[in-house]
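**User:** Everyone, produce a chain:

**Assistant:**
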Amino acid sequence: MTGFEVEEIPFDSERLRDYPDPSGRLSNWPAVYAINNHRDVYVGESGNALLRMVQHKRDPKKQHLEMARILLDGTFHRSACYDLESLLIQWFYSDGKFTVINANDGHRNEEYAGRAEFQPRFREIFEALKDRQLFQHTLAEIENSDFFKLSPFKSLVPDQERAVLEILKSLFEAIEMGRTSTMVVAGNPGTGKTIVGVSLIKTLRDIEASGGVDDAEQRSSISDFFASGYPEMLHGMRIGFVIPQQSLRTSIQRVFDRAPGLKKSMVLTAFDVGKSTEPFDILIVDEAHRLNQRANQPSGSLNKAFTEINERLFGADSNDITQLDWIRKQSTHQVLLLDPAQTVRPADLPPEVIGEVIGEAKVSHHYFPLRTQMRVKADADYVGYVRGMLGGASPAPMDFGDYEFELFDDIGAMDARIRACDEKYGLSRLAAGYAWEWVSDPKKKAIKRLPLAKRPYDIEIEGHRWRWNSADKDWIRSADSVNEVGSIHTVQGYDLNYAGVIIGRDLYFDEAAGEIRFDRRAYFDKKGVENNRKRGIVYTDEDIARYVKNVYAVLLTRGIRGTFVYVCDEALREHLRAFFPASS
């Protein structure tokens, strides 16, 4: 057989039993298949596709399906089939034409001989299925969507898979022993902490729903948890996913709304948890470092709520109580996904609290580090390099492979480059530190009444003007985002294909001292410089500089294919030039 073939077979018991197989490929060759009706789809792989179809037809959960499409290729082997099976599940889920009824029983993102050569073939298969009306969006649209990037069916790299496996082991052991537990998943930007959280909550719900029936297409590391005994332990458990950032929370709610077994109501704020009159069994907290300590909140109503929650949960208000304390008080088991270096405001959890949590998790063997970089496609430790660059390290030669890391002297040229990348690849945006006032804030009544074209501009550099993000929820995909500049509060937790980062005059280079310094006069995040009156803490410029550098480190680690940088302070630009490839 040369090339691939798509064999279409009615999903009918009589037809399946007597279906001709002159080549023997349908009953004795690695194959991937999709079975669907007008609403649902199930994807699997097998070395005997016809027999597997007969088995599936006996399953009450699949009897309503109508048509099977078996994908055959003379070059397929089991590793390639596992890979294609996983991709098809992710593509179908992200496309949204069908509801994927597979359980999340473990798909590993692993290398195998010839994997790179199979990728074009898999894309050809996608196009063949799209021609048969099985997909409604292009592959580029699908893979740029939040549904794909935050998919609960995402294939996991080994350290992500290990984290999920060890969490499940520890969780079921704690449930069986009647103990509480706190687990920590820690990793740099791009290591997939959010993916671990989404995958974990989907897996827990699928284990509960399986009723002990093992229907795994492949034996993964977590398949045993679908066996009898484990589903019963999860029966009726209340599980929640806490997301501190509003923009990311909205995106994950959309993802959960599409996935069987998950509901958008499972995605919570810390205030939702604190106010709940019914406790949770399991809480998974993404970006846990962004939980708040006792500090002035963005509104009077939230300050009041903070006090009321403390009083209800602990009997009295106290300045030492944090939102992490709410999480622990309101749940039996917690999984905290965090990176201490991504705190960006003084109101975030204090370093000493994060340190204590990590220390406790290590002692109890509930600490699971993620080290594989999944976002930035650079060959070296790009994240560490960027953090070192902002932290005052000396430049060292680094080979970033095909990753585009460039310093621009002309802001207009960088804007044009981002637009060109967006035209070609999509998801390419400008982002900046909070070094300009948000005069175009649509929440202001006077601004809200104006059409977008007549609203004032916030950022002006070298005759070029931009507004800050006009949407605070899912800004990256909003209609006018390519013409605007995103802040840390709209891009943290997201992937971009290309990021154009503007480093404002909130950072400057002190040539006499030879150091990067912070200028409070050029920083306009009010909550980013606000002293903590509740706890009697006054933040110095050195304190705030740590948060501001964290902000820029986060912005500089959003780009999958490349990061472009423009620096407003001329002396800082010249200082940083040594960190960029000479060809820039």
